[in-house]
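Thread title: Can someone regenerate the structure for this chain?

I was given the following input by a collaborator and told the matching structure tokens would be attached. They weren't. Posting the sequence so someone can regenerate them.
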Amino acid sequence: MATPPFVHLHLHSQYSLLDSCIRFRELCEALQRMGMTAAALTDHGNLFGALEFYREMRAAGLKPIMGCEVYVATTNRHDRFGPQARAYSHLILLARDYEGYRNLAKLSTLGYLDGFYYKPRVDKEALAQHSGGLIALSGCTKGVLAVPLLGGHEEAASQAIGDYHQIFGRDSFYIEIQDQGLSEQKIINPALLRLAKRHDVAVVATNDAHYLTPGDYVAHDILLCIGTGSLLTDEKRLRYESDQFYLKSPEEMAALFGSVEGALENTVAIAEQCDTEIPLNQRLIPRFEPPPGHDVSGYLRDLVYKGLEKRCAPVTDEKRQRVELELDVIGRMGFESYFLIVWDFVRFAREQGIPVGPGRGSVGGSLVAYCLEITDIDPLQYGLMFERFLNIGRITLPDIDIDFCYERRGEVIDYVRRKYGEQNVAQIITFGTMKAKNAIRDVGRALNVELRTVNE
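Best answer:
Regenerated them for you:
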């Protein structure tokens, strides 16, 4: 029997922090078992897991569809006062191409920088400005159509369809329908189908997957307790009133929506439209502009030899040979601008009286970094190897860890932004994960088990 046509277009991973327990490798294995060839990632308001998802799906021979479930402010993303400031609804956005992916990134950034108020919110103005290459789905029971429908305002939902047609185009906005057995869905699903017919809008079936199997429901419920600081026994806590928010098979989705015209087939049609190629492993180092009369390579060499005379006198053949070896590797790997940029902002910090750390990690093995006063560690004195830091046989970007006074590090970041451009500066996020011991403690807390018992 042929597998029914269906692609998951509404799916959350562990990067919907403490609200989903789907990990990418396990997701890929589950999709392959079900005979599915594609899936979308639509985490809450962010693209934290986008590249990991992209890589894992590609490695498994599956098609990654890049997406996001954005929070749309009821008023506007700047509103932080009044009764409607915390009101928002959900909207699924899927990238049709690389332009769409870049617009997803812009919208997520706007949500955090401009619109963050409990959630990273966007608004219709932002959506209109960054709609290129995007397909929109109307969302879940908290979606842009469901919210007015649950409030008894079908005409407001009708008006919203017109708004989103104007923003995304008639062929790029779909009415999303789900059925996890929720009481709200008994109200909104008939209304959604009426609106679809009235406005001639295509319908898509989704399942808002937050875990892989029905057996994961309890684990997901405990995860929600950990995320909200609640006990499993709390009656008024956040919970999903159904155990159906899992990665359903095409057969299960066909059993639910086979009678809804186009609801399954449209998921495949959308997946076929989405083909995002993300350029990976490119060097995007800004170019350092040396003073007039110098090129980058020559200027770096001049600075290094001045530093060698200053910090390493008397200059021996051994020291010159080490400098030449390092400069040769740096030049062959194309990292002259990188070293000059780091030298530049470290110099700025020292000139402004901002405390700078002595250097940390494998960069301590670089005599060039020492001569540039990026570090304060003489690698020759301590027998440190440059090859641990940079190696022509291992083509990776150099990683120079520099510590600045935490009270003034913002001045250094502002300087780099001003000199090298906002578009060339980014801060890197770090995610903490729950290891076994802490996970057991958190689960024990959610189950209201005494810590002493958990530790035993």
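The beta strands are 38-41, 63-73, 88-95, 116-117, 119-122, 134-137, 173-177, 203-205.
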